[in-house]
Amino acid sequence: MSKITVDQHKTFEYYRRTYVRDNYRCIYCGRDMIASFDDWMSLEIDHLVPSSKEGEVKDDNLVTSCNVCNKLKSNFDPGDLPEDKDQQIEIMREHVLKKRMAEQLRWLKALRQFDDFKEFGELKDDSNIERSPATKPLEI
Prior knowledge:
This protein is mainly alpha-helical. It has helices spanning 12-21, 37-41, 67-73, 85-120, and strands at residues 43-47, 62-66. The protein has a single domain, classed as Orthogonal Bundle (DNA Binding (I), subunit A), CATH 1.10.30. It has a two-stranded antiparallel sheet with strand order 1-2.
């Protein structure tokens, strides 16, 4: 694959080439990144071998990712990766999906705790709590 030149780095073509190749889907979770505006805004480029681990900015090291999977993958480096890109992706996908499942369990636990707090704690009726502007419903 070709190496990205300084002139091409972070240009529309730099991103588009990767997105089109990956069919605008997160290679980790399969999310369709053009299905909605929120999906589109979550679209990111990820380095299979993280740039912090000396991963190169080359076509074969760049993949399409949603922001959640990219954050979960972070700078994960499994060590010696096979030469085959599909095998590399599979190793990274497995790591991301395990982290995703762990985070989903944490999220569900937090929801249960919040529901228990609302039911049995001091916040049985939280309607009197002033909400921050970020949590107020949008009026469109």
